[in-house]
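User: What would this chain look like folded?
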Amino acid sequence: MHSLRSTLLACLMAAAAALAHAQDGTIYPLAAPAEPRAIPLGTGGVENQPASESWFRQWGQPMARNITAATLTPFLPAPGKGNGAAVLVAPGGGFRWLALNHEGWAVAQALADKGIAAFVLKYRLQPTPESLDGFKQSMDRMFAAAGSSDGNPRSLVPDLSNQLADAEAAYALIHARAKEWGVDTKRLGMMGFSAGAGLTMHSTLNSKTMKLAFIGPIYGGMGPVSVPKDAPPMFNVIAADDFLFRGQFGVVKSWFDAGRPVEFHLFQNGGHGFGLGYPGNTANGWFPLFLNWLDVNGFLKSRPAP
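Assistant: Here's the prediction, encoded as structure tokens.
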């Protein structure tokens, strides 16, 4: 658990650093977009929540914070185009906000376009101040505390009980409606970005109900973890200029040492938070590699019954 908390802390610090150091990433208020396909998961609220859910825009992308009610949004292939594979997608944001478009909806749509059913998990978050100014100040303080040499940064890692419960409820819902949604539950995996990668790893190592077929932590923490004997195959991606990387290969080595299937791509550049990719960096190439990995490992075609 110690190594996993270190991994989650890395995700949290990465998100905080991105906000604290992005001087050109001005935050603007944003009206909440319509989410007509979002299905409430009914997992409860958030204790000591001072504000209701609100949205903001940064770097041209919509973000949500103070999420108190988890939902699941399906992105299904066109009729007759599905191959039965499915992915639960967890966006990132340091467990304080969610990058729901470029690490959620856009990724899910890209998967659906390739015949893979995708489901965006809008999970509950840690409370943040109601005003945008208060939000920015709270994140600055959190980042300063995380970088303090005499502080206890592990205390900044939130209890992920809510987030795990949300992931488990989403997984159960996909199973319950698998026939309707054209999902082969034996080919249901999970991928996440930054903090969402941390939640993917946390779910893999701690859930008693989720039996994931594969996982894809994308620019998540790289610290070592204790890998169970039946851990799912892992596809892992990070950029060399991501401050989360720092020359670490711990989680990849953990999977390798445990004898579990693992594929790892270290891209020359891309920074942190590149989603599907931005022009001008090599990390743009990760998504086709992921599709090929799924295909080669047999996740894109049905398997005969034993």
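The mean pLDDT is 90. If you want, I can go into more detail on any region.
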